[in-house]
């Protein structure tokens, strides 16, 4: 799944994104372990990815890798933004925007156990 997200635009270059996918997996939180695999293995939090600009003194391979990583981070940012917009539009499809007037009557519906809790000062879930 990680490689599919990273190589969505160009699936033929999956091998170039393998190290990023490995970093992504090792730094994502696992509920069953209650920590990241990196922390489970090394006992500390992983280093964060930072955006770096190459200098003209760097070897060409380093410059190519840094530019590829910068492009990959930009593509990931764009993909995340597109996914957020898609989720927002799907959530807004069933949403009604209502306007209320000051002094107007509104119906407030509480959860069934909350209505009795408001009257009886006990916890309905524990009964």
From TrEMBL:
Please list every transmembrane segment annotated in the UniProt record, as residue ranges: none
| Gene Ontology molecular function terms on file | nucleic acid binding
- Signal peptide feature range: none
Stored PANTHER family? CHROMO DOMAIN-CONTAINING PROTEIN-RELATED (PTHR45835:SF99), YALI0A06105P (PTHR45835)
What name is this protein filed under?
Transposon Tf2-1 polyprotein
């Amino acid at each position: 799944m990680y490689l599919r997200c990273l190589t969505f635009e160009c699936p033929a270059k999956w091998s170039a994104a393998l190290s990023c996918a490995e970093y992504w997996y090792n730094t994502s939180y696992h509920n069953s372990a209650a920590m990241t695999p990196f922390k489970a293995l090394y006992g500390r939090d992983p280093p964060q990815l930072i955006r770096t600009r190459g200098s003209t003194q760097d070897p060409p391979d380093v410059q190519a890798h840094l530019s590829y990583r910068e492009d990959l981070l930009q593509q990931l940012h764009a993909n995340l933004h597109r996914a957020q917009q898609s989720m927002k539009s799907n959530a807004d499809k069933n949403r009604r925007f209502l306007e209320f007037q000051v002094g107007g009557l509104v119906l407030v519906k509480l959860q069934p156990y909350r209505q009795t809790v408001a009257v009886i000062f006990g916890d309905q879930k524990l009964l």
